[in-house]
Amino acid sequence: MLSAFGRAFRTPDLRKKLLFTLAIMALFRVGSHIPAPGVDTAAISACIGTSGSSGSALGLINLFSGNALLSLSIFALGIMPYITASIILQLLTVVIPRLDALKKEGQAGQTKITQYTRYLTIGLSILQATGLIATARTNSAYLFGTTCSTPIIYPKVDTLGIVVMVATMVAATSVIMWLGELITDRGVGNGMSLLMFTSIASQLPSQLWAIKQSSSLGGGWIVFLGVIAVGCVMVGLVVFIEQGQRRVPVQYAKRMVGRRMYGGSSTYIPIKVNQSGVIPIIFASSLLQLPVLVAQFADPNFTHGWSQWIHSELGYNATGYSGLYMGAYFLLILFFAFFYVAITFNPEEVADNMKKYGGFIPGIRAGKPTADYLNFILTRITWPGSLYLALIAIIPMIALMEFHTSNKFPFGGTSILILVGVGLETVKQIESQLQQHNYEGFLR
């Protein structure tokens, strides 16, 4: 493995791509520490020191921003607007014929959809930046999950100052999109995924050290090593499942086009065990987070009966997450896994394309029988994939309560899936480029 890394840096063009990618990732982290104009950084440090950054009701968004959200830096929004815009466009493709037609046009249509995604990202970033700054001015407890009432935006900031802050964050979001596209075009791997990887990985050292300091068992080292052991087991499990796939064999019949013979080849349709990726966890977390956000916004101190019930049953408290929360979380992940697979993989469309180009699954008739067979396989393979996602999301919550690590457990379901998934994809791309130079790759 280490020798493969050495060969990668000894290859001139690959070395340039790797160094360019690392430089963009470093620039992204630098921007996450630059405060937006009008922000009182001392007050933010006091509030975070009181509650801990992960105590925020916006923990998932803060995770994707690399802790830049609660710091109100210029990169506070991170890549979350782009992720949201991409998911919205992907869902709208199913219901809007125009977008579906663009998707089928190939590279030209995908370029148009990417342009729509950029426009939608800017619109969402304006809304999110405005809401974030307005909330920071009026209700800091909504951000930090505490009774901290210290103003985190200077009182002298007027309406024009708010406009400048919003414009700064929106412009920074545009810069993040540009940096991600630069990595995709000139670097190694998918740019947006690598920026998300950078945001999550940057928090691991501080979270692990906070776990060590918050525990008194064996000076904190026993819990520290226990958390690392659980993390290693989870990484191994995620790698094993993420690489698993069902390969459906496809045979193409020979056909004459003019004087040339085409077809006669064999291939397969790869159906992954985890076909939906991390999207079900994001959807389930966001849906369960919504009642807590509404309750905290309407009643910051949770003094009313209904807000107390929501906070105790659907929020994080001193005893961890409630059984109701974990049960609802588990079932929602199962539901969204099947839902997302159903809208992204269309067996009828795949069967029609196979029939159009003379392909068939051995032993299965073309047309509707092929679509039914693919749907049967997809349903059966989605069950273990959805259960795997649900377990990966629930295990950190149980470990949270067992290790008494407050709410700083670093190996959450969303973070570990993203870290492992992006890492595997990037290593595969480096592997393919090494093999083009007749070198041995990373994977042997």
Overview of the molecule:
This protein has 444 residues and is mainly alpha-helical. It folds into 2 domains: 1-203, Preprotein translocase SecY subunit (Orthogonal Bundle); 205-409, Orthogonal Bundle (Preprotein translocase SecY subunit). It has helices spanning 2-10, 12-31, 41-51, 59-64, 68-71, 80-95, 97-103, 107-138, 140-144, 159-186, 191-201, 204-214, 221-242, 279-298, 305-314, 323-344, 347-356, 368-403, 413-436, and strands at residues 245-252, 255-257, 260-262, 266-272, 359-360. The strands form 2 sheets. It has a 3-stranded antiparallel β-sheet. A hairpin with a 2-residue loop joins strand 2 and strand 3 (260-262). Helix 6 packs across helix 7 and helix 14 (279-298) packs across helix 16. 31% of the residues are buried.
Mean pLDDT: 79
Number of strands: 5
Structural class: mainly alpha
**Fraction of residues in β-strands:** 5-15%
CATH topology of the largest domain: Preprotein translocase SecY subunit
- Choose one word for the global shape: globular
Report, as a whole number of angstroms, the end-to-end distance: 9 Å
- Reading off the top of the CATH hierarchy, the class of the largest domain is best stated as Mainly Alpha
* CATH arch. level architecture of the largest domain: Orthogonal Bundle
Assembly level? single chain
**Low-confidence region ranges:** none
Q: Report the order of strands and helices.
A: HHHHHHHHHHHHHEEEEHHHHEHH
| Proportion in helices | 55-70%
Radius of gyration: 24 Å
